[in-house]
Amino acid sequence: MENFNKSVWNRLYNDGEHVATELEAILPGCRRWVAIYKAKPEHPLLPWKRPEYKYSILYFELKQELIDEYFSEEDKQRQRTFYVDNEDELFAILHEQGVDLSSFTYPWKCDYPL
Question: What kind and span of H or E run contains 80?
Fold first, then answer.
């Protein structure tokens, strides 16, 4: 659980719901987030196979003016996704990326747009 807020960690670990935090944007006029999603069982009708993982970490930036509008995958900039198998890998990647674990919160509290 490292430095996560206990209720935020419970949302992710026990409830399987995503958590997010806003980071300082690199591109001008953009906002930047990182979110953690817990893997959900695959739907049998999906036409593609995704990698086996326990958590996925999604980083992206979005232009400020698109946040309250509809936007597509192509509008996300500097997008990176990591797939990890356990909590140790999860914490290691977040530490490597310089993310403060205590800053993670509920998505609506940091205006996470997804």
Answer: strand 77-84
Task: Write out the two tokens for 11.
Answer: 């949302």
> pTM here?
0.86
| CA separation for the pair 32, 62 (Å, rounded) | 6
d(CA 87, CA 13) in angstroms, rounded, equals: 10
Instruction: Give me the amino acid identity at 22.
Output: E
Largest Cα–Cα separation, the chain: 41
Q: Of how many residues is the chain composed? A: 114
- Residue 28 identity (one-letter amino acid): P
The model's pLDDT over 8-61, given as tens digits with 9 standing for 90+, comes to: 999 999 998 999 999 999 999 999 999 999 987 665 555 556 667 899 999 999
Closest CA to 5 of 87, 109, 103, 86: 103
